[in-house]
Amino acid sequence: MTAAREALLDRCIEVLHAQGFGDLSLREIAAAAGTSHRMLNYHFGSRDGLLAAVVGRIEATQRAALAALTAGEGDELRAGATAYWRQLKEPGLAPAERLFFEIYAHALHGREWTESFRAAVIGAWEAPLVELLGRVVGPGDARAAARLSLAVTRGLLLDLLLTKEDEVLDEAMELFGRLLLGRPA
Questions:
Q1: I need a labelling partner for 123 at 20 to 30 A (CA). Which of 108, 114, 154, 182 fits?
Q2: Whether this model's pTM surpasses 0.70
């Protein structure tokens, strides 16, 4: 990825966090990012390509955050998982999360422009989660635990975006953590 493309992607992500852009045209996104729609087309191929690149970058940032927060064992791992959930719930991330689920829906329909998203939406998360959860559940159950964790987290996040029922979803995540990671001492 070129430095110009990276800088442009950074500006588009700033726009997403500031105002969201699920409903904006490519021209509107470009204007808000201080560029032209032609430059966005040049670097990302289309509006859809831009949205996929934005989500890809945000997903990579989230994987790095998870790795940093869950580097410990036992109680540290539980605390890191709780901190990660709190981070995902930050209101400033809601526009990016809504965009993630919008692109996920397009991927379910096999849209060609979601090919890289489809390849990474589970695959990029699986190895780090298998490594992390293998320390807790053992190597035999690590892959299933990774997929379960990914599904639960995304499901609760989708529920949160729709219902805003923060308290009960925190309780659900806490229960899931106890079930998967064991009860804290």
A1: 182
A2: yes
